[in-house]
Amino acid sequence: MYKIIQVAGWVRTARASGKEFMFVEINDGSSLKGLQAVITKDIEGFEAISKVTTGTSLQLKGTLIKSPAQGQLFELQVSKTDRGHGVKILGTCEGKTYPLARKGHGLEFLREKAHLRPRTNTFGAVTRVRNNLAFATHLFFQTRGFQYIHTPIITASDCEGAGQMFQVTTLLPEHNEPIGKVPTVEPPKEKKQKKKPVAAAAEGEEQPVAAVEEKKAPEPFHAKKIDYKKDMFGKPSFLTVSGQLSVENYCCALSDVYTFGPTFRAENSHTSRHLAEFWMIEPELAFATLQDNMECAEAYLKFCLQYVIENNLEDLKFFEQQYEKGLIERLKNVIDTPFRRLPYTEAVEILEGLIKEDKVKFENKVYWGVDLASEHEKHLTEKVFGGPIILYNYPKDIKAFYMKVNEDGKTVQAMDVLVPRIGEIIGGSAREENLERLDKRIEECKLDKQAYWWYRELRQYGTVPHCGFGLGFERLVMMATGMENIRDVIPFPRAPGQAEF
Ligand SMILES: NC(=O)C[C@H](N)C(=O)O
Fold first, then answer.
1. Residue 493: CB within 6 Å of ligand 1?
2. Helix-then-strand count for the chain, H and E
3. Which of 249, 285, 469, 473 has most ligand 1 atoms within 8 Å of CB, for mutation?
4. Per the confidence metrics, is the pTM higher than 0.90?
5. What residue ranges define each of the domains in the chain, with the CATH number in brackets?
6. Which residues of the chain, if any, have pLDDT below 50?
7. Is residue 284 in contact with ligand 1, taking CB distance under 6 Å?
8. Which parts of this chain are annotated as the region Disordered (predicted)?
């Protein structure tokens, strides 16, 4: 049994075997392994093909046969036959300057070659896992009846109240001259429109706009004075730091919803866990408690990891070999073990106890009320509990205004999912659904009540208990692959000094 197939891809390795034939391994990025082709001398253009180097793009037509060689099931035989075999060089690759001609590049070197690094085994594998995690995310929420909401990228609201926002400015010239050639606008011939009666709108429906205005001739482009800054959004606007407040609007109408989009934080952070542009998954659950929130977060994380074990095993084995020994076992443990849940207060007591007994030293102080540093979070997950944990009921002073205050008046119904190596992967809370209490928090946090008028109205008109969380997608990719630097799990990292591509 043989099959004639046509494939295309980039040469990984090419080597001649005597003068009679040559071996070429090509890869099209669909999996870690490429396809080996044996090309014989009698094929047209053999002379040119025998000189191809790594990176060349090729199209091959040949017969797929069982491979006699070890480590591969099939190989492609390309030789002169009556079955239309052939080789076509699509794009040659300058071997002398091609940055990936040599094997075994460091990740740092590859970060500077963001346009070419997808061709390496590491970035091919990261990309395939990332893709499946995104797919698993939709699968998880969609099969549970959540609606996917596209929340805005440009917004005037600072969800977290943390002020780490990129401001959006226009590049249009200050002096109202339009860019480029101005089209001449001929005013249309004046035509009077008859007044039409407005049809009665059904209750609750939008009123149809009455066609009562006479159509005015458009003003010539130059005549209009435009204040671009003001006309654009009317107030300073920013790139979103979170879709949460927007998705809450939809949660208070469609019940369970989620958003999955890019978010931006203008942190001048050089750590291996932060990016200025990252993707966040933010579900919002209606008629739900903090308990429901924790359950959803845990089930979602486990679902995603299970999905990549089932669909990316070859890639995971590669990561295990190259980056993290025991990766697959670790993932299976996460899936199989219930996440330990404990109040923030208890976690602080554990850490304080360890410090007192001289069992651990931290750079950052630990006391009730502190925002735990990543060294504390890592210690808890890696050394104390040996797996992911969920901390909840955090001091209200270190958390955002929208979180529901507990009866003790000191803590809020917040939760963070912490995982080994990474620290916080999920942050969420039950939202304050009571308008009075929300207003009190807005005041305490010294925020502008007026700016949140629409958010407050959700509490005014048919409020419901609801909660939600945000998962930093890149941190999930790090968790699933064992990659240690967040810049290596996103196609084009946006971090200080890195925005060229
Ligand atoms: N949707 C969420 O709860 C995420 C939270 N607003 C954050 O940015 O961390």
1. no
2. 13, 17
3. 469
4. no
5. 3-91 (2.40.50.140), 121-168+235-488 (3.30.930.10)
6. 175-185, 187, 195-204, 206-212, 221-223
7. no
8. 177-213
